[in-house]
Amino acid sequence: MAPGLYLKGDDGELTQLEPQVLAETADLQPLLARAPQLLAGDDDSTTNRYMLVHRELGIVHGEDGGARWSVDHLFLDQEGVPTLVEVKHSSNTEIRRQIVGQILEYAANFTNYWTAERIRGRFEARCHENKREPSDELLAALGAEDAELFWTGVDDKISARRLRLVFVADAIPSELRQIIEFLNEELRNTEVLGVEIREHAGDRGALITARTIGSTEQAQVTKGRSGGGGRKLRRWTESDYLASVLEHGTPEDRATLDRLIEWAKQHEPPLAITFGTGMTHVGMQLGLKRDDAYLFPFTFYNNAGVEVNFQQMASVPYPPFHRLEMRRELQHRLQDQLDIQLPDDRISLRPNFPLREVHDPGRLDRFIEVFEWSLSGAEASGVGLANLDVARAELDAPKP
Fold first, then answer.
1. Does residue 214 sit in the same domain as residue 250?
2. Does the pLDDT value for residue 64 go beyond 50?
3. Which end of the chain is more exposed for a tag (fewer CB within 10 A), N or C?
4. Residue 209: strand pairing partners
């Protein structure tokens, strides 16, 4: 029963509403796809808005494996945080224990395959199927006026493994509620929530309610959000980035990055220079972003770390480095010319090395030679912004 819940008609008459269980999971799933705002529940400490990317999204296990699982929904919020949603009906016995292990397994394997570029491709394909412009959809759903800034923010969240896991049901049992609250209070980067969606029916219509579970005060403290409100995206400039390098690194780090930026600007043609959107820690990428060539092989962080973007190469894809043998060749060149050791088991992930490895002018020259070699490979592939979708489709195609 829902005592005290009434619907007031135009004539002023009150109709008491009675709880009505949504019949099946099949009712909840399309409802959530049509009304993503239900994910916000009744938590007045958040201003999150959500946008559907895809339903029944495949989650890959292992480098060359096919989709082993599928999560019911993938949403993005206005900050670019991937939100994995699993829907269960209260009558399903899996809701008490199995669903927890299930969604944690999804989260553990999500970043093995789903990059910002791949998610963007899936989102834009859905928009085109619905005859919607992706930029219009971003603006309408999330208020995102700058698509490139938004997708850079998504990439930052995935790199930081910042995810949101949401259990949706018509009723969440006490055992699951305790697990949700425990996980949300213990996990720093990943938010774990439950949302109860119920229908209350009367003679003149129905009322849908959504209640949030797991957003405890302790969870807000753990995640550093006790002040309320969402995290913001920052638009970095070159001067901002270089100034922050001196805050988090050394003058030698700054000098090395100054030279790399100068090389990128003098390159023929000049390389694209992009920056992340983190509030404090941010990465810079130098590379090709043309119709006939697309590659950003390294990310240079303002805390003096260099990341090799093997994972993006394999999954965006970045031809020809979506092929394992080409990533191996880049790994060997860094090792042979600079003695930079990258573990074999991270050839499809994001291995890193300290920027100090290339402080010496001679070593930096050799690093730039390796960089140039990777760019020439991308140029020779002929795959860029004009035909990247074709390359994505080929990579997504089932293997014989």
1. no
2. no
3. C
4. 198
Domain end position, chosen among 190, 222, 254: 222
269 and 173, same structural domain? Answer: no
What is the pLDDT at residue 115? 87
Q: How confident is the model at residue 229 (pLDDT cuts 50, 70, 90)?
A: very low
Alpha-carbon distance of 227 to 241, in angstroms, equals 27
Instruction: Tell me: do 371 and 244 sit in the same domain.
Output: yes
CA dist., res. 11 & res. 233, Å (int): 48
Is pLDDT larger for residue 282 or for residue 3? Answer: 282
Domain annotation covers residue 229: no
Asked if residue 139 and residue 281 are part of one domain, the reply reads no
SS3 per residue for 46-69? CCCCEEEEEEEEEEECCCCCCEEE
**Which single residue is written with the structure tokens 């206005």?**
78
| pTM across the whole model | 0.56
Strands (E), the chain: 6-8, 14-16, 18-20, 50-60, 67-77, 82-87, 164-169, 191-202, 205-213, 272-275, 283-290, 293-295, 298-301, 305-308, 352-354
pLDDT at position 67:
53
The last residue of one of the domains, among 196, 222, 248, is 222
The answer to whether residue 76 sits within a structural domain is yes
Residue 354 — φ and ψ, nearest 5°? Answer: -75, 145
Tell me how far apart the alpha carbons of residues 81 and 78 are, in angstroms, rounded to a whole number: 7
For residue range 137-179, what is the model confidence (pLDDT) as tens digits?
Answer: 998 888 888 888 889 889 888 888 889 999 998 888 888 888 8
Q: Which domain range does residue 318 map to? A: 238-396
